[in-house]
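Suppose you are handed a protein chain with no further information: no name, no annotation, nothing but its sequence. What can you learn? This example shows the usual starting point.
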Amino acid sequence: MKDQIYVATFSENAIDVIRENGFNIELNDLCISENLDPEKVRDTMEEMKREITASGADKAIIHGPFTEIIPASIDHRAVKLGLTRLNEAHAVAEKLGIKKMVVHSGHMPLLYFKEWHKEKSHYFWKEFMKDKPADFIIYIENVFEEEPLMIKEIIEDLDDPRIQLCLDVGHANAVTCEDFDIHDWIRILGPMIGHLHLHNNNGKEDLHGPLDVGTMDMRAVLSSIKTYCRPDVTMTIESRTCASSAEWMTSTF
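A reasonable first move is to predict its three-dimensional structure. Written in structure tokens, the prediction is:
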């Protein structure tokens, strides 16, 4: 069980919690893309190595940069910027020997129509993955999607086992339309989910709260995950303060 659980390093006392519970680590150092700038990347990598060593984690996942990753951007230079940053993140992953990376979908619902986003996402992720090794996996994460069908179609159209889903249950809970609840998301997306982000909220704001505080019944969420997702699915605790969530997870999962 512990082999499937990760903790995000942005969370308070994450390194201690990982070490004390025998969890794995999701590294957030590359979320802010400027940490990949030439004058910063060496220090960024050293910090990531330090976090892995200090945590004692056996396995690591990198969360890639999410600032200005917008596949549907009309400006081709903006699209190229997103690909450049993701390729820089992959280069760091290769040097650290990490084969898995979470990436944001980049959907901007008030700016781009869904059909346009789907079309451009197909090009964007194909382009990014065209030269990546067979054992490198990305998990595309929902952020502002209000329903699960669009991202499902994107993954199906890409038809690449290296491109899977990261279902962020907190994001879904905060923005989903009334036609779907979190269990619908898990049921509809289940077989293509390789990784999950777990945190709770009030159903309106992306609070990244403790697992047992919010409008989601996380015991029921875990039950749905066990029912609809693959047995080897992994998950990251993404609560801003992770100690109580780790304790809850250990006693529940």
